[in-house]
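Lab notebook, design round three. We kept the backbone fixed and only want residue identities now. Task for the bench partner: fill in a sequence for the structure below.
Input structure tokens:
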């Protein structure tokens, strides 16, 4: 019985009675009143199911279950009350998204049947959520790996942007980092539709012709179209699409989502511009100062974080190894180019199995050298020893 159920009432005798009746079938905790429930949730939560009395002093059941819905959206919520009027039931269902509405006194058999149904609902919701998260994670990983293989220069810029953004959002701090990290990694995805020579020219600071610039400027919208087809990626697709555009959010979007999307696009704009200035040889301090003047409305901690971020990790151990000896998880510490200058692997790319195959194929065709500079970290080495 690993799935926990919390019973909430302002009468200790009622809680003790239900606990005695249900203890053998379910993993039951109890809390006296709404305040006690919030303490129990903070200490022992989340719970699979919460059953709350309606009429309680200071905090009634609707208020409590509404709070639980906001903090623990997967928890299944049940209302128990002696006041079975339609208005109370409607309020509970509408404001707290109640799974079931039971009236006092509730027979043991009905309570047990309801709790069993609630646990099944919880398993259904969490299993679906886990499937979506795994699917989303796998989709992101595949897209990232495709970008690294097809357009190493674009991947290199995206990886640098992710490093900057991750440091910035940690410094602010913000509640959820993953949206900003993923938006950074996906920011250059549209470059798969643009010829690598143009991308390489952009990232090395060469001037583009008007026709090349027009083609390059389409990449955020290409990425948006690709990402918007993946469930739950719509906000990230919006952030990526607005990496070079004015930030306005319209439509039927929750306020919290609007704020996250707007901030994500603003931070992405700043970090990509910061990376571009660094690639031109401008110092981190000067680059951050210029950008702070252009984006006066943004939190100054964003620019402070960019200055603080060290250009390279301090614990790298770089060595040269034959291509046959590189392994997934290593980091490539050099640009790998063919004789004519085509970029095969960007500096900073993580080694994956497809990347190893790519290097072996280029080496077999005598297009690249047979050794690669790679790095590993002392942290990783220590973890392996432990």
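Proposed sequence:
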């Amino acid at each position: 019985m690993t799935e926990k159920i919390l019973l909430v009432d302002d009468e200790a005798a009622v809680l003790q009675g239900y606990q005695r009746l249900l203890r053998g079938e379910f993993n039951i905790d109890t809390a006296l009143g709404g305040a006690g429930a919030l303490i129990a949730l903070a200490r022992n939560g989340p719970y699979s199911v919460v059953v709350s009395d309606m009429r309680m002093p200071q905090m009634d059941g609707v208020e409590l279950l509404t709070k639980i819905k906001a903090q623990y959206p997967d928890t299944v919520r049940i209302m128990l009350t002696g006041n079975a009027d339609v208005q109370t039931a409607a309020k509970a269902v509408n404001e707290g998204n109640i799974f079931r509405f039971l009236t006092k006194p509730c027979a043991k058999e009905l309570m047990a049947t309801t709790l069993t149904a609630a646990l099944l609902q919880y398993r259904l919701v969490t299993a679906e959520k886990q499937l979506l998260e795994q699917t989303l994670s796998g989709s992101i990983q595949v897209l990232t790996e495709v970008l690294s293989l097809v357009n190493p220069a674009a991947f290199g810029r995206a990886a640098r942007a992710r490093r900057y953004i991750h440091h910035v959002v940690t410094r602010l701090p913000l509640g959820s980092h993953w949206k900003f990290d993923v938006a950074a990694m996906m920011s250059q995805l549209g470059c798969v539709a643009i010829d690598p020579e143009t991308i390489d020219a952009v990232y090395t600071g060469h001037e583009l012709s008007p026709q090349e610039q027009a083609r390059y400027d389409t990449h955020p919208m290409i990425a948006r179209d690709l990402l918007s087809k993946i469930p739950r990626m719509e906000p990230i697709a919006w952030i990526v699409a607005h990496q070079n555009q004015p930030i306005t959010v319209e439509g039927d979007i929750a306020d919290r989502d609007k704020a996250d999307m707007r901030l994500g696009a603003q931070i992405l704009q700043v970090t990509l511009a910061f990376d571009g200035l660094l690639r031109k040889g401008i110092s981190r301090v000067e680059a951050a100062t210029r950008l702070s003047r252009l984006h006066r409305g943004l939190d100054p901690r964003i620019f402070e974080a960019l200055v603080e971020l060290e250009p390279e990790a301090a614990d790298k151990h770089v060595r040269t190894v034959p291509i046959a000896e590189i392994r997934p998880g290593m980091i490539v510490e050099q640009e790998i180019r063919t004789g004519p200058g085509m970029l095969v692997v960007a500096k900073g790319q993580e080694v994956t199995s497809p990347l190893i195959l790519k290097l072996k194929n280029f080496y077999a065709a005598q297009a690249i050298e047979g050794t690669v500079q790679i790095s590993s970290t002392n942290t990783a080495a220590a973890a392996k020893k432990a």
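Keep this in mind before ordering anything: The radius of gyration is 27 Å.
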